Amino acid sequence: MTKKLFTQIINEWKSNLWLLAELLVVSVVLWYVIDNLYCQYAINSEPLGFNTEHCYKIELSKIEDDGTSSKSEEENNYTEEILKRLKRMPETEAACFSDWTSPYDWSQSYCSINYDTLSENIRIYKVSPDYMRVFQIEGIHGESPEEMAEILRRGDIILSENVFGNKGIDISNLTNKEGFYMYGNKTYTENLGGVAKTVRHHDYVQGIYSKSIFVKSRSKAFVNTLYLRVKADKDINFIENLFQKAEKEINFGNVYISNICSMKDMKRIFLQKYNKNNTMYMAGMGFLLLNIFLGLLGTFWFRTQQRQREIALHKVHGATRKDVFMRLICEGLLLIAIVTLPALLIDFQIANAELNAVYDDTTLSFGRLMMCAGFSALSICIMMIIGIGIPAFKALSIEPAQVLHGE
């Protein structure tokens, strides 16, 4: 049958040429759309590396004396005392402070980390040790947040597992080694005490772009941001209750709690723009897919409707309904097979030119290319089967004499 179908396709080259051109364009465009959707899904499916449930951000302010600022060292002592008082509350599971950096926070700090000839620009978290407990950050070898906090407490640094990953270096092999230095300053070197799982800054950033370092804060400037994890069974009206007891039990010196925000609200506000853009992007891709599917469906549907006389002739010459149906389907599959290879070559060139989405620091991955191209071909086959099958069944139900009486 394959030889006969090839002969028929060649004999009908004028009409088939336009169909092949359409299939080629549709195949490439469909691959591009599926590739982008896959990347978006893969990014959203990556583990965040942290947990913000039952967590709160607490902002501190200070009362100025005679229009002048108090000494930062004294103010930090007040902050430390407030942190101790927060930890002593029965509803508190863990509490910490952080210099500007946390999940779903617009403020971010970066530094360079160097080891031997290796260098990387990464996000830096200057925090107190219990930051690891508050956000439940774990080590790649199963270390608990408590164990990770202890590493910071003894003064060692923690790097995320993807640091130097693009250079083919397994950072876990450098654990407990000294010689790491930041900001290009070799005067002060650090010991790598542990390796954390990849910690993404938010839901829409790729893990490859979330290389991080955690260091115990040594800042002498006024620290005005605390983070607190509340026990799950005690997380009821926490903000209202804390404000009520803050003035009498928590505030200390000239430093006081000025604002409390749940990480749930921070996440919602931070992701508003990203969610809106993602919704518009998905709607656009969905509309494009719908147009592709309807166009392809209509092409095969119209083509099959115009071949009622051909179908009737096959039946007159003794072909069964199954034979005719399979011949039409196989012809469609053969046309798709003919354009698959050139479409794949075009897909490769687009990815090689970095014109498609970036995922895992690359636009061209053999597995990703073949998977998305496979889904593209499968989608076209499904549309082809529907577009041929429905009108073919209708045509096969009509008596040949009724179709051919005008011949």
Element-by-element helix/strand order? HHEHEEEHHEEEEEHEHHHHH
* CA gyration radius, whole angstroms: 32 Å
**Taking strands numbered 1, 2, ... along the chain, how are they ordered across the largest sheet?**
3-4-8-5-7-6
Which stretches are poorly predicted, pLDDT < 50 over at least 5 residues? Answer: none
Helix content: 40-55%
Q: How much of the sequence is in beta strands?
A: 15-25%
**Tally of DSSP helical segments:** 11
* pLDDT averaged residue by residue: 86
Number of strands: 10
Measured distance between first and last alpha carbons: 27 Å
The major pleated sheet works out as: 6 strands, mixed, barrel
Query: What structural class do you assign from the helix and strand content?
Result: alpha+beta
Shape: elongated
Q: Mind explaining what this structure looks like?
A:
With 407 residues, this protein is of the alpha+beta class. 51% of the residues lie in helices and 16% in strands. It contains eleven helices and ten strands. A hairpin with a 7-residue loop joins strand 6 and strand 7. The radius of gyration is 32 Å and the shape is elongated. The mean pLDDT is 86.
